[in-house]
Amino acid sequence: MAKQNSPSLVEVVKQVAEQQHSQASEIEKSKIVLSQLQEEITHLIEELTMVKESINEKKKMFEEEKKVHAKLRKEIEVQNKRCDAILKRLHCQLNKLQSNRRQWHWNIQQMEKKAAELRKCLGVTE
User: Fold this and answer.
1) Which residues form a coiled coil (predicted)?
2) pLDDT for 65-115, tens place per residue?
3) Higher-confidence residue: 86 or 1?
4) Where are the alpha helices (DSSP H) in the chain?
C-alpha cells in the first residue's frame, strides 16, 4: 500500500530531469545577464578611463595657462613700470619747458622795459 502513494521511480527521474533542465535554463539566463553586466562594467571602466585622461589633460592645460598668465602679469608689471618712468621723464621735461618759457617771457619783458627806458633816454617816440 505504501507503494501506491509514492511516485514511481520513472516519475521521480522525470521530475529531477525537469528540475535540472529548469535549473540549467536559469543558469543560462544568469550567464547571459552576467555577461551583459560584465560588458557594461567594461564599457563603464573604459568611459571612466577616458574621463580621467580628459581631466588630466585639462589639468595640464590649466597649469600651462596659469604659467602663461603669470608670465603675462610679470610682463605687464614691467611695462607699467617702464611707462611710469617714461611718464615721469615727460613730466620733468614739460616742467622744464614751462620754466624756460616763463624765464624767456620774463627776459622779453625785461628787454622791452629796458628798450622803453633807452628810447625814453634818447627821446625817441614809438
Assistant:
1) 27-114
2) 999 999 999 999 999 999 999 999 999 999 999 999 999 999 999 999 999
3) 86
4) 2-5, 9-122
- The residues, any chain, with a CB within 8 Å of residue 125's CB and separated by 6 or more, are 119
Give the Cα-Cα-Cα angle 52, 58, 62 (nearest 5 degrees).
145
| Domains of the chain by residue range | 8-122
**Which grid coordinates belong to 119?**
628810447
Give the integer Cα–Cα distance in Å for 84 and 88.
6
Which backbone phi and psi does 3 adopt, to 5 degrees?
Answer: -75, -25
Task: Encode 74-102 in three state secondary structure.
Answer: HHHHHHHHHHHHHHHHHHHHHHHHHHHHH
pTM of the prediction? 0.52
pLDDT at 5 over 80: no
